[in-house]
Design a protein that fits this description.
10 helices; 7-stranded mixed sheet; extended; single chain; Arc Repressor Mutant, subunit A; Endonuclease, Chain A; 2 domains
């Protein structure tokens, strides 16, 4: 996602002294920093062009809509619409003078406002849940066969994958099996999943298999409450997978971000959940071989 222009090499910069724009070569480090900020803001519900407009204003100061549109190569009508939408969100303000100008609140304040907006939406949904469920249950229900279906579900993003892992763990009644190499084990340990796993281990059998790296050894040392733990070698290339009661499986894997710096090894987390018996049984057999 580009802040000012889609061109990967050049960007427009406004010179106050000459009152004109000039093309300059993008600073690669700056571009990566802006990309990180853009990706984060997108998770708060801002659209691509909304982010471009906001960040331009936040860095450039007071600007007319036409100046904004020209600077980021956006149609003026679209720019006006976006400015009004950002005003409704509270992160852009109009300056009542002629010609009309716009200004943006500081990034830290903008994030606070966006977070508060998300909290309000969640609270309203929680409040409306009982009435929505009651309304749904009052509607005539179609007769549906309760035959078991073998399903697949794709999940993207670390939070979605962790939510599914927690759901799978909570549904387990007898045995929960995990294979996680060092990197995956680190992710599980530093999230609340490890606390929930510890709590469930008092009720069900939990088996964890990992590699024999020093990193894994450290985390296993912090999880001594596990009743049975095995370490194995030369399996770092396997995706993380979890098996619940030999009925369901969650397979998590890292997708390399091609736009990221190779040295930083930036990954996106994705996963597949399924109750497809053939795949569950295959992974059950693999798990028993790893042990």
């Amino acid at each position: 996602m580009s802040l000012a222009m889609e061109n990967d090499v050049l960007m427009k910069v406004y010179n106050k002294q000459s009152e004109a724009y000039k093309l300059i070569k993008k600073d690669q480090a700056l571009n990566k920093q802006l990309t990180t900020i853009e990706e984060t803001l997108s998770r708060f519900g801002l659209l691509k062009n909304e982010i471009r407009v906001y960040l331009y204003l936040a860095r450039a100061g007071e600007k007319k809509a036409g100046e904004i549109a020209e600077a980021i190569s956006l149609h003026r009508t679209e720019t006006y619409r976006i400015l009004r939408d950002l005003e409704k969100k509270g992160i852009v303000f109009s300056i009542f003078e002629k010609p009309l100008k716009f200004t943006a609140v500081a990034l830290d304040k903008a994030i606070d406002l966006l977070v508060d907006a998300q909290k309000i939406k969640i609270k309203l949904l929680e409040q409306e849940k009982p009435s929505l469920v009651e309304l749904w249950q009052s509607m005539p229900q179609l007769k549906v066969e309760n035959a078991k279906r073998e399903l697949f579900q794709m999940l993207e993003g670390e939070q979605q994958v962790l939510m599914k892992a927690n759901e799978l763990l909570e549904k387990t009644q007898n045995k929960f099996q995990i294979y996680a190499s060092a990197d995956y084990l680190s992710e599980l340990y530093y999230n609340d999943f490890s606390d929930k796993l510890k709590s469930q281990a008092k009720k069900i059998q939990v088996n964890l298999v990992t590699d024999d790296s020093s990193k894994s050894t450290y985390f296993l040392g912090q999880m001594q409450w596990l009743s049975r733990t095995q370490k194995i070698t030369d399996t770092q290339s396997l995706p993380c997978f979890m098996i619940s009661d030999n009925n369901e499986v969650l397979i998590a894997f890292h997708e390399k971000d091609n736009e990221s710096d190779e040295a930083k090894k930036k990954y996106r987390t994705a996963a597949i959940w399924t109750n497809y018996s053939a795949l569950v049984n295959t992974l059950q057999m693999l798990f028993s071989k790893l042990v």
